[in-house]
Amino acid sequence: MAADIAGYDPGRRWHDHQLPGATATASIGGAPFHDVWRSIATFLRVGDIVRLRWHADTSTDQLTAHGLHRDDLHIEVRRGARVWTFLLQVSVRPPDARMITAART
Questions:
Q1: In sequence order, what E strands does 1-105 have?
Q2: 94-104 pLDDT, tens digit each
Q3: How far is Cα 51 from Cα 29, in angstroms, rounded to an integer?
Q4: How many other CB atoms are found less than 10 A from the CB of residue 13?
Q5: What pLDDT digit, counting tens, does each position of 50-77 carry?
Q6: Interatomic CA distance for residues 56 and 5, integer angstroms
Q7: Which of 31, 38, 67, 73 could form a disulfide with 89 if both were Cys (CB 3.0 to 4.6 A apart)?
């Protein structure tokens, strides 16, 4: 499975793929009961190419005003020439508990 992280680096430059020095983690507790995850698992077919797409700090002004950051996790499924993207998880947390952590300068 492939994965990449999009987001801003400490110099506020956007990276659509492979945000330098960033790491990401997510856990889906109770996956058999998670509606989105069950739908995706049922949708997948042999030969599909699956890619995790992380989007770091997609925050709004209202979130940043309270010191919070929003990180998103999408799953992309390629089947031949067709591509589907599903929003798998959204995390709104303070800087020390984020789903995606970026390198510090």
A1: 2-8, 14-15, 23-24, 49-55, 69-79, 82-93, 100-101
A2: 888 888 887 55
A3: 20
A4: 10
A5: 999 998 887 778 888 888 989 999 999 9
A6: 7
A7: 73
